[in-house]
Specification:
The chain is α/β, with parallel strands linked by helices. Helix content is about 35%, strand content about 25%. It has four domains: about 100 residues, Methane Monooxygenase Hydroxylase, Chain G, domain 1; about 190 residues, polyphosphate kinase like; about 160 residues, Endonuclease, Chain A; about 180 residues, 2-Layer Sandwich (Endonuclease, Chain A). The protein is built from 18 helices and 27 strands.
Length: about 700
């Protein structure tokens, strides 16, 4: 789906606050859960995505603002004119409203599931036949995995795991039981993550039943606490979210892997930044928990529904109901690039573009596997940011080493929330003989590039692929990203320069083709925008089309405002954060912005500059955020092939056409939908059709 981003700010401020803009993005995710044109089970999964996004937001962004408050700083200059303390309060209010909205949406979806004979029941609705199944399931699978802590008499409250869900249990003890000092006895039950959250119960006729693990445990409370004498027992869900920023120590005796490993482990004991609780919890239990956990006013305390960790809805069972799911698509081949023969032979003749998931990511794996076996290949250099849980990329690189190739991997150990997986793969590759580089101190390596050197006719020839996304087979099925395959020797040589910079980073390299952060991207983009301004003044063709995840750098936004005031037409497709305010007279009336939220996560970065009729196009790993421009290693790669240029323009315009029937986001309401008689224009489906047609022409 696409939404046109309105001017939500009625003040004279020139920028939206980054955090509030992100919350607007997550509101668009929530809209998908309410959109009746989205298949019913997929709507549940969007609720899960909304919740998962919110968890990560609190771990990182909210935690960062909270640190600003605790440091006694205002933060107005880089928070878009709002103080950090006011921002925390506004975030909390927005999240409370969004959480309430998500609960209302969930109730509507459950009613619609009933019409499809799908019932999510709770512990009060269990039939006798279901009871036998549940008790057996509990004894066999759940009970051995439960961690139950009696907290009523503990002097020190246990440390709760980040984002884990707990049932806070209160037992009102019988009057004649003198075991405990108080009549109220408290316990915590950790909801085990190793068990599916949704348990499918035996069906009855054409009716299907599901019980959530939380309710299954509630149903078995008497079994768990059978040794206690109580009059009544109740259980309510709670969850805390902790500060997830990594604090890396400066101990020179430790290796970088050891430092990151230690910092990741310390994350589990980070300060709590959000406490979510079932709003129906009794006052005594809530007060007991807040006091024992030391939750204070700088933390976000959010009353929620009966169930937390709604991110688990991302894995809601399909139940064999393909009619309630998105229609599956089979990734298409790239026209003219067969998986049967040698990819080197084909890429030697021309460049090829892969647009996953519309086209098969298998080309990347095939290319590396071929390189691992090819006796002509002498070396492989590749950057890795996030690997799949079972990575064919990693196994191909290890295979290459075993075949005598020189393999160098720059692996980013600080890829947020993937640190542990990357550390594990780093250690595995290192033990197999892969040479690892850990980048540059103070700079996260976010670029996605690979260069392969091959001996042909007694000369080294370079082959490369550069991507907007991670070399990850799992995310390539759900993230849209471009990957360019090329044998352009100048580009291959400049990728090698980037790797040289990783190893000798006091020498700043010069590039004639690639645009590389942190040294060149900002000024290069300024220059490209200035060229469009000058062309507009001179009556030449001008225009800017940009597609990216986030646009938050104020200086870059100012440059786009300058272009708008000069009359340059600017189209922006920004999936997430957008601090730019479009359509403001005298500032940005020539800028339009849309945001696409749909079946696949929009992830590519694409920059198109009209350039007086000789269009310049780049694919990039960089968003227009301060961190990407100034504090990371990023690569923007020029596109020289005319056919690929046209393909990128086509795909941008197909996405832009979604704006024809866009939903409008207002500052408060989330539900301004198109008319019911309007068929939704889903650009992602149209893009798949586009590549199908290319194959047939």
């Amino acid at each position: 789906m696409t939404e046109k981003i309105e001017n939500l700010n009625t003040t004279k401020n020139e920028y939206r606050n980054r955090e509030l803009s992100w919350l607007q993005f997550n509101a668009r995710v929530l809209q998908e859960a309410e959109d009746h044109s989205v298949p019913l089970i997929e709507r549940l999964r969007f609720l899960g995505i909304f919740s998962n996004n919110l968890d990560e937001f609190f771990k990182v962004r909210y935690a960062t603002v909270r640190r600003i408050v605790e440091a006694g700083k205002g933060g107005r200059s880089f928070l878009g004119g709002i103080s950090a303390s006011d921002l925390l309060e506004e975030i909390t209010q927005i999240v409370i409203e969004q959480q309430s909205q998500s609960l209302r949406i969930l109730q509507k979806i459950r009613k619609e599931l009933h019409k499809e004979n799908i019932y999510i029941i709770n512990e009060t609705e269990v039939t006798k036949a279901q009871s036998e199944f549940i008790l057996d399931y509990f004894i066999r699978k759940v009970s051995p995995a439960l961690v139950t802590i009696m907290i009523g008499e503990l002097e020190e409250f246990p440390s709760l795991k980040d984002s884990a869900a707990y049932l806070a249990v209160r037992m009102v003890m019988k009057k004649d039981d003198e075991t405990f000092q108080s009549r109220s006895n408290f316990a915590l039950i950790e909801i085990p993550k190793v068990i599916d959250r949704f348990i499918v119960l035996p069906s009855k006729g054409d009716k299907q039943y599901i019980i959530i693990l939380d309710d299954l445990i509630r149903y078995c409370l008497n079994n768990i606490f059978s040794i206690f004498k109580y009059e009544s027992i109740s259980a309510h869900m709670i969850k805390i979210t902790r500060d997830a920023e990594l604090d890396i120590d400066s101990d020179l005796s430790r290796s970088f892997i050891e430092k990151i490993s230690k910092s990741v482990k310390n994350r589990s004991s980070g300060d709590p930044v959000r406490f979510v609780y079932d709003k129906s919890i009794d006052a005594e239990t809530l007060q007991f928990l807040l006091q024992k956990m030391g939750i204070d006013t700088t933390d976000s305390i959010i009353p929620g529904g009966r169930y937390h960790n709604r991110r688990d809805y991302m894995k809601f069972p399909s139940l064999g109901r393909n009619d309630l799911l998105y229609k599956k698509i089979e990734p298409l081949p790239i026209k003219g690039l067969s998986m049967q023969g040698s990819l080197f032979d084909k890429i030697a003749d021309k460049d090829y573009l892969l647009y996953a998931p519309y086209q098969s990511f298998s080309y990347v794996v095939k290319f590396l596997r071929e390189a691992a076996l090819d006796p002509k290949v002498k070396s492989i250099r590749i950057t890795i940011y996030r690997l799949a849980q079972i990575s064919h990329i990693a196994s191909s690189l290890i295979n290459a080493v075993k075949n005598g190739k020189k393999v160098t991997v720059q692996i980013e150990l600080q890829a947020r929330f993937d640190e542990e997986a990357n550390i594990e793969y780093a250690e595995q590759m290192q033990s197999e003989g892969v040479r690892l580089i850990f980048g540059v101190s103070g700079l996260k390596v976010h670029c996605k590039a690979c260069v392969i050197e091959r001996l042909e006719n007694e000369k080294i020839k370079r082959y490369a692929f550069i991507s907007t996304g991670n070399f990850n087979e799992s995310t390539a099925r759900i993230y849209t990203d471009y990957t360019l395959f090329t044998s352009n020797q100048k580009i291959g040589k400049e990728i090698n320069k980037v790797f040289d910079f990783f190893e000798v980073n006091y020498k700043i390299k010069k590039y004639n083709h690639l645009i590389v952060s942190p040294h060149y991207t900002r000024n290069a983009m300024y220059h490209l925008i200035d060229t469009e301004i000058q062309n507009k003044k001179n009556g030449k063709p001008s225009g800017i089309r940009l597609k990216m995840n986030s646009l938050s750098d104020f200086k870059m936004i100012d440059k786009l405002y300058q272009a708008s005031r000069a009359g340059v037409k600017i189209k922006l497709i920004i999936r997430g954060i957008c601090c730019l305010m479009p359509g403001v007279k005298g500032m940005s009336e020539n800028i339009e912005v849309i945001s696409i939220v749909d079946k696949f996560l929009e992830h590519p970065r694409l920059f198109i500059f009209e350039n007086g009729g000789e269009t310049k196009i780049y694919i990039s790993s960089a968003d227009f955020m301060g961190r990407n421009l100034d504090n990371r290693v990023e690569i923007s790669c020029p596109i020289y092939d005319k056919d690929i240029k046209q393909e990128l323009i086509d795909t941008f315009e197909i996405s832009w056409k979604d704006n024809v029937k866009a939903r409008i986001i207002s500052g408060k309401a989330l539900n301004k939908y198109r008319k019911n008689d309007e068929e939704p224009f889903r650009s992602q489906f149209k893009l798949y059709e586009y590549y199908q047609q290319k194959l047939n022409t």
